[in-house]
Amino acid sequence: MKRHLATVIAAAAVLMLPASAEAQAPKKGGQLKFAVSAEPPDYDCHKNTSFAFIHPVRPHYSTLLKFDDKKYPAIIGDLAQSWQVSPDNLTFTFKLKPNVKFHDGTTLTSADVKASYERIVNPPAGVVSIRKASYTDIGAIDTPDPLTVVFKLKAANAGMLAQFASPWDCIYSAAKLKEDPKFPEKNIMGTGPFKFAGHTAGSHWIGERFADYHEPGKPYLDGFRAIFVSGAAMVNALQGGEVLVEFRGQSPANRDKLVAALGDKVKVVETPWICNLVVGFNTEKKPFNDPRVRQALSLAIDRWQGSQALSKIALVRDVGGVLRPGYELAATESELAKLPGFGKDIKKSRDEAKKLLKDAGVPELKFKLTNRNVPMPYTPVGVFLIDQWRQIGLNVEHEQLETKLYQAALSGGNYEAGLDFNCDYMDEPNILLIKYVSADKSSVNYGRYNDRKLDDLYEKQMRATDTKERIKLIREFEKHALEQAYTIPTIWWHRIIVHWQQMKGWDLTPSHYVGQDLASVWLDQ
Amino acid sequence: MLRYTIQRLLMMIPTLFGVAVLVFVMLRVMPGDIVELRLRGDGAQVTPELLAMERARLGLDKSLPAQFGDWMGGLLTGDLGISMWTGRPVAYEIGIRLELSLELAILATILATMLALPLGTLAALFKDRWPDRVISVFAIAGLAVPSFWFGMIIILTLLLNFNWMAPMTFTPFLEDPVKNLSQLIWPALAVGYRYSAVATRMTRSTILEVLQEDYIRTARAKGVYERLVVSRHAMRNALLPVVTVIGLEFAFLIGGLVVTEQVFNLNGIGKLFVNVLARGDYTMIQALVMLVAGFFIFVNFIVDLLYAVLDPRIRYS
To answer: With a CB-CB cutoff of 8 Å, which residues 115-154 of chain B face chain A?
Structure first.
C-alpha cells in the first residue's frame, strides 16, 4: 500500500512538472549514459533485428524518413527534405537535404540512398539482408540528380511509405559499399548526429557529437555512452544514477522500486507497446489440427480480467486482436468483444470451450506449453494461460526453455503449443499480420499450416490504398484468423520507461525501436 | 626436476585433446542452432536459403570430422577462430575480458590468503576456546553464504546507505588504480570471503594435525620458542594442502564467477561463458573450455612444483 502510494505521489508530481520543464530551452553539452540489456553482435543495420542493436547504433545513422516521436505514427523527413507519392501509389520521389555530410566528411547524394536500398532489396553475395522480403515490391531505384531518388514499385503497397521510416534502413556510403559490400558489418560510418567513438565488447559503446550533423543546432549532447547491463544490475545502475535511462522498458515492480527510491528525481512514462505474446498451436500434431480444440483453448482465456491482474506484475496490459489496441486500423473494443475468445462473458465462453473439447473427443486434454525462460513477461503470461486452461479441466505442463532451445523447438515443430511473440517497429499490418499467413509464405509462422483465405486477405489489404477498404479487409482477416485460432493473441505489452529528470527531449513511442537517434535529447545539468 | 617438468608438460597434451574431443562432441549433440537464433531470434522473416547461406559461411554445413579438423588445425597454428556470433576473432573476445578476470582472481586470492593463514593458525592454536569458535562461525558463514548473495548485499548496502555505485565499466589498473580498485574491490571481497573460509578451515585442520607430530613435540622439548615452533616447523609442513586449495580455487575463479560477474556487471570470462553458451557460439565455447581446462592443468602443475619448494623432502626426478 505504502509503495503504491509513493508511486501515485511521484507520478502526480511528475505529471505536474513537465509543462514547465519541457518548456525550457535545450542546453548543450554532457554525455548521456544509458543502459542496454543486450549487445549488438555486429554493426550492420540491414542484418540486425534487436533493440540491443538500435539503441547504440541508430544515433550514428540517418534514414530517408523517420517517425515523428511527438506525433507517432506521423512521418517526417530525416535525409529527405520532401517527398511525393504518385496517384497510382507506384512511384515515390524523395528530394534529399542538400549538403548532408557523412562522418568522414564526404557529401551524401542520391547514389548513397540508392546503393543502400539496393543492398537491402538485392543483397550482393555474402551480405545478409534480413528485411529483404518486406521490399520485394520495389522494382527500380532511379537517381535523376544527386538530390533526387525515385523508387518505382511493381505493385501498390499501402505500407510502403511508412517503411521508408524504418530505423533499420540506415543509409550507407555508396563509395564504402563499392569498396566492400560488407563494410557496415565492422565499421560505423553514417550521417547521424553522433560519430562512433568506440565499442568495448561486453562492456560499453561510445558516441561523440557530429559537428556537421544535418539538423542545424543538433545534437545537443556532447556524446553518449551505452552501457551493456541487464537484470538487477541494470535497475541498481539506474537507482545509483550510473545510467539515466534504459530505453526498452521496465517491469511494474522495477518501476515501483525506482519511484519509491528516487521519488521525483525520476520521471515515469508509459504507453501501449507494439508487442504481443501469442499462442501458436502446432497444427501438425493432434488434436491441434482440429479447429474446435484450438478455438476452445482461445475461448477459455479471460483476457479482460487477466489484463487487469497481469498488468500489476508484468509488462502487459492491453487487450487486443491481431493489431495493437488504439492503432487506427485495429479493432475497437466493441468489435473485439464479438470475436471468439474476446467475449466479456467468460462463463459462457468457457461453457462453449468445454462443449467444443467434448465434441472433439478431448474433454480432459493434456498438453505442453513451450515457453522461453525469459522472466518478463513470458513466465507470468505462461503461468496465467495454464491457470486459464486449468479452469476448463485441462492439464497443461509449462515447459520453459532457454531461447536457443525454444527457437529450435518452434522452428523444428517439436512443440504442441508455444508462447510466441509478435513485435515490430511500427503498427503496420503488412509487418504484424505476416505471423498469421501460411507457413509456405511466412517463415515466422511456426503453426505449420497453410490457409489460402488468410493469404488472399493479407495480399488484398496490402494492396488496398483506400483506408476504409483496408480496414474492412483487415477485420475480415482478423475474424477468420481468430475463428481458426491457429495463432491466438494473448495480451499486448505495455511499455514503461523510468528516466532521471535531467534527461530531456526524448519522447516515448509505442515501439522501443523508433525515436532513438538521440538528436533532440539534452541534459538539464 | 627438468625431466619431470618436461614430462608433466607433455602429459598436458593428451588431457587437453580429450577435453577438446569431449567439448566438440557435446556441443554438436545439444539442440539449437546459432544461425536460427541470430537471424530469427527476434522474429525476422528470414528465408531458408538465407539460413543455409549463413550456415555455409560459418562452416556448419561441413561434416563433423571436417569441422573438428579445421578447429584442431587452427589451434595448432595459434588461431582460435572467429566468433560465430560477433564475427570478431575469439582471441580478441577473450583477451579483452581476461585482464579483468585475472585481476579479480588475484585480488580475491590475496584477500583470502591474508585472512585464511592467520585466522586458520589462530583457530588451531586456540582450539575449542573462544577465538576458535569466533573464527569457526566466520568461516562456516563464509562457506554457507553464496558469493553472489554477499555481493548483492554489498551493492545494496553501498547504494542504500551511501547512494553510491561502483563504476559500471572496467578501467585497467595502470590507467587509473583508484577507479580500477573502486570497481573490483567489492566483487573481490564477495568472492574472497568464501574463498578465505575454505582456506581457513583447511589451515586450521592441517595445523592441528601437524601440531600432533613427533618433531613438534621434539622442538618444544628442546625449548624452541612456541612462535618459532609454529612459524618454522608447523606452518611450513601444514601449508602443502593449503597451497593446493588456494591453487584450485584460483583456477576456478577464471571462468567460474558466472553469477558474481552478472551481479556486479563485470565484463569477465564468466559472463562471457554464459552469453556464448546461451547463443550456442561453438567456436567461443570451445576456446573458453580449452582456456579454463588449460588454466586448471597449469595451476595444478605449478602447485606440484611448489610442493618441492615448501617441503625439501619432496624431490622430482
So the answer is: 152
Q: Are residues A482 and A517 in the same domain?
A: no
Helix A467-484 vs helix A291-299: crossing angle, to nearest 10? 100
Taking alpha carbons only, the member of B162, B149, B150, B137 closest to residue B111 is: B150
The reply to whether B92 falls in a domain is: no
Nearest C-alpha of chain A: how many angstroms from B34? 7
Residue A284 lies in a domain: yes
Q: Are residues B172 and B31 in the same domain?
A: no
Q: Report yes or no for ipTM above 0.90.
A: no
- The verdict on B37 touching A (C-beta cutoff 8 Å) is yes
What DSSP string describes A202-233? TTEEEEEE-TT-SSTT---SSEEEEEE--HHH
Please tell me whether residues A377 and A427 are part of one structural domain.
Answer: yes
DSSP bridge pairs for A82:
A95
Backbone φ and ψ for B312, nearest 5 degrees, come out as -60, -20
Closest CB to B96: pick one of A201, A402, A443: A201
A236–B47 CB contact, under 8 Å: no
First-to-last alpha carbon distance for chain B, in angstroms, is 5
Secondary structure class of A362 (helix, strand, coil): coil
B97 to chain A nearest CA, in Å?
8
Distances (CA, A) of A289 to A399, A452, A486, A518, B36: 21, 16, 9, 48, 26
Q: Of A456, A455, A463, A428, whose CA–CA distance to A153 is shortest?
A: A463
B162 versus A162: which is more confidently predicted?
A162
The verdict on B257 and B288 lying in the same domain is: yes
For residue B118, pLDDT over 90 is answered with: yes
The partner residue sitting opposite B279, judged by closest CB among A203, A242, A404, is A404
Q: Amino acid identity of A517?
A: D
Do the Cβ atoms of A443 and B48 come within 8 Å?
yes
Looking at the fold, whether B157 and B281 belong to one and the same domain comes out as yes
Distance from CA of B93 to the nearest CA of A (A): 7
Whether residues B43 and B154 fall in one domain:
no
* pLDDT tens readout for residues A262-321: 999 999 999 999 999 999 999 999 999 999 999 999 999 999 999 999 999 999 999 999
Binary contact (B45, A422; C-beta < 8 A): no
- Chains A, B: CB contacts within 8 A come to 131
In a domain, A244, yes or no: no
- Give the structural domain span for B62: 2-77
Q: For the whole model, what pTM was predicted?
A: 0.89
